[in-house]
């Protein structure tokens, strides 16, 4: 047990040293990035969760904006942006989808969204469409019933005026609602 504890302590110290070395290396890379004038963003190699958190911390201390992208744990990477070149929501969405950011394509998408919004607004100004089926059932069955049969059937059809009404002779219970309720209350009082 003492040997194992010593080995564990040695491994923990080694990991701690590696983290400190990694942090120093990231601080150097970030300072080089800040000094590079023509570079608005930098993409780092995929790294594990601890290394990404260290890099995010270094970027925050340096006054930069950082985001992680990628699907699974092995391929997640960090991109660091200078504050004056902070990414737009569209740019972040492109990186999240795994695409490279293309400003021309983003402008085209924005134009298409505006056009769709204008069309929707024009439809709203025209007013609501009258309710009804999207197509005429008569056209669907024209080959079966013909064109005149549907019109003749529509003219002769009348609604059943007694629909939903049950004649008194067909009812089992001929009492009124009040009588039934009074009888129920009386039974409850007897209990």
UniProtKB/TrEMBL annotation:
Instruction: Return any one Pfam family short name.
Output: R3H
What residue spans carry the Basic and acidic residues bias annotation? 97-114
- Region described as Disordered: 97-140
All residue ranges annotated as the R3H domain in the record: 20-83
Q: Which InterPro entries match?
A: R3H_dom, R3H_dom_sf, R3H_sperm-antigen, SPAG7
- Output the SUPFAM superfamilies linked to this UniProt entry: R3H domain (SSF82708)
Please provide, alphabetically and separated by semicolons, the GO molecular function terms listed in this UniProt record.
nucleic acid binding
**Under which name does UniProt file this protein?**
SPAG7 protein
Q: Which organism is it from?
A: Rhagologus leucostigma
Show the taxonomic lineage. Eukaryota, Metazoa, Chordata, Craniata, Vertebrata
* Gene encoding the protein: Spag7
